[in-house]
Structure formats: C-alpha cells, structure tokens
Automatic annotation (TrEMBL):
It comes from Kitasatospora terrestris. This is Uncharacterized protein. Residues 11-22 have a biased composition (Low complexity). It comes from the Bacteria. Residues 1-31 are annotated as: Disordered.
Length: 135
C-alpha cells in the first residue's frame, strides 16, 4: 500500500504532495505537449469594404465614390488635428516649446511645411476659441 504522505516528483516545478483523494492537495500537472502544429488556415483574400464583390458597375461607382469622399473628409479632419497639435507644441508659453524644425522632424515634414502647419493650427485655435469650442 502506498504511503499517503509520500512526495511525488513533478518535472515542471518543485516537489509537491501526492494526491490521495478528494479534498486533498494534488500535485501540479504540466500541460499536455502538442505532438503536431495546428494547420494554418488559408489566408483570407484582401477585402476593401467588399467593393470587389460588387458586380454592378453603377453600384460599384456609387459605393466607391462614397468611400472616396468619406476618406477625403477624414484626411482633412486629421490634417486639422495635426495643425492644432503643431501649434500647441510650438506655443511659446510652453516651457518645452518646439521649433518648426523639431516639429518637422517628428512629423516627417519639411521645416517650411511645419511652420505653415503651426500658423494654420493657430488660426484653427482662434476660430475654435471664438466659437466657444475646445482649444
């Protein structure tokens, strides 16, 4: 008859008490080792808003035009936010204000473009404060 107080060896960690029945602390178990790698599924074909599945050219033109206009509006809005951020970073009241050249380096712009974005951002900030919006 096995000794209920015997120690069981577990290669995954320190020795723990052997299990003797319900309610007693058993030894830790290691996860089962995989003997094969799961099959990788077929790569899904790229989809662009399911435009490739539209067969009617009139519908395709309509839907792709809607998307192009939406992306254009999103790009313009993102550019406005870039300009506001550039203006905030260049604010001389900040102890860590950046020069247009430093902003250009961070945004991958030319220094001239960064200076114009700072000016544009200041204009947007003035418009927002005049309208009672956020700075």
């Amino acid at each position: 008859m096995p000794d209920p107080h015997a120690q069981a060896s577990d290669p995954s960690g320190p020795t723990t008490a052997a299990a003797t029945g319900p309610g007693t602390q058993g030894r830790r178990r290691r996860p089962a080792q995989l003997i094969f790698e799961p099959q990788a599924g077929e790569p899904e074909p790229e989809r662009f808003f399911d435009l490739e599945s539209i067969v009617d050219p009139a519908e395709l033109l309509s839907r792709s035009t809607e998307l192009a206009l939406a992306f254009r509006a999103a790009a313009e809005r993102a550019t406005d936010f870039q300009a506001i951020a550039a203006a905030q970073l260049a604010d001389p009241r900040r102890f860590d204000a950046l020069t247009p050249a430093e902003i250009a380096d961070r945004a991958d712009w030319t220094p001239d473009y960064a200076a114009r974005m700072v000016d544009y951002g200041r204009t947007l900030q003035k418009q927002r404060s005049a309208e009672g919006g956020l700075h």
